[in-house]
Design goal:
The protein is globular and about 55 Å long. It has ten helices and 14 strands. The strands form two sheets. The protein has an eight-stranded mixed β-sheet with strand order 5-4-3-2-1-12-13-14.
């Protein structure tokens, strides 16, 4: 058997838009690992945002913070952090100043926590409410790991997301930040160019995926990447097989080699079976 390695996005790929995880996905991940293949998370979420229910599925490692971190080894057991690619604190100060200049709300994400402006937290609550996912328990869980502040730390920050009511916000932020940053848009449903995501220049899921593969003695040809959003593009392009979910953005579909079914239509299990990681 030729060992393969799968890199799976979380939101919209493992977790559906109602917040659930299809049982077929859980079975597929566990069956692929039992057959000797590696299965990694590859998400824009930072470590503090990885829920226990994801860890309990069982993964061989994770790329988190859209490439800022990589854990090699069973989450969060045997293994450890092998990659940490953070923003320079001076760059964080520049970035938050740019957000304030254009009137954008923002969230900063780090390994140990998440910091949101009050308006950004309110936007998050509104988005969850619109999806029917804002319960008292959900709000309490958010408050457990999101600190609401207008004066967040500048140290230990991996990435950020920003949002506003202005469709020109993405262009305005991009123009102010320049070559030290990577700014993408289209990652948050319903916002379009009124929001985006910022990482240090060169820090992506795809670039960190290559580091993980090198450490494991594997190559891009061994990798299957599955995602649905615009922060998955270079990972989908770099892997030997890039698979877009049936619910993926047009950009993710264009970057992928193929399209599987949607997250709530057994998308991961279908892709795993097609490529021999599990039995059909």
């Amino acid at each position: 058997m030729s060992r393969r390695i799968a890199f799976l996005d979380i939101d919209g790929t493992i977790i559906d838009h109602a917040g659930g995880i299809p049982e077929s996905t859980v079975r597929a991940v566990r069956s692929a690992r039992a057959a000797g293949h590696f299965v990694y998370l590859a998400s824009g979420r930072t470590p503090s945002e990885v829920e226990r229910r994801l860890v309990d599925i069982g993964f061989d490692g994770a790329i988190l913070g859209a490439g800022a971190y990589a854990w090699i080894g069973t989450l969060w057991d045997a293994g450890g952090w092998r990659v940490e690619r953070l923003m320079d604190p001076a760059h964080v100060a520049r970035m938050t100043a740019a957000f304030r200049e254009v009137g954008a709300d923002y969230v900063l994400q780090g390994r140990e926590g998440v910091w949101a402006t009050r308006r950004a937290f309110a936007r998050l609550e509104s988005a969850l409410a619109a999806e029917g996912r804002l319960s008292d328990a959900t709000r309490e869980a958010l408050l457990d790991h999101v600190a609401i502040t207008e004066d967040p730390p500048h140290d230990g920050i991996a990435k950020s997301v920003f949002s506003s009511d202005d469709l020109g916000c993405y262009a305005a932020v991009t123009a102010r930040l320049g070559a030290d940053f990577s700014v993408i848009t289209g990652t948050m449903p319903g916002l379009g160019t009124a929001g985006g995501e910022v990482s240090p220049a060169g820090v992506t899921k795809g670039s960190t995926m290559r580091r993980v593969l090198a450490e494991l003695g594997m190559t891009e040809r061994d990798a299957i990447a599955i995602g649905d959003n615009n922060n998955d593009l270079d990972m989908l392009e770099a892997a030997g097989v890039g698979v877009a979910m049936g619910n993926a953005t047009p950009e993710a579909r264009a970057a992928a080699d193929e399209v599987t079914t949607a997250v709530d239509e057994d998308g991961i299990a279908t892709a795993f079976a097609r490529h021999g990681l599990i039995a059909p």
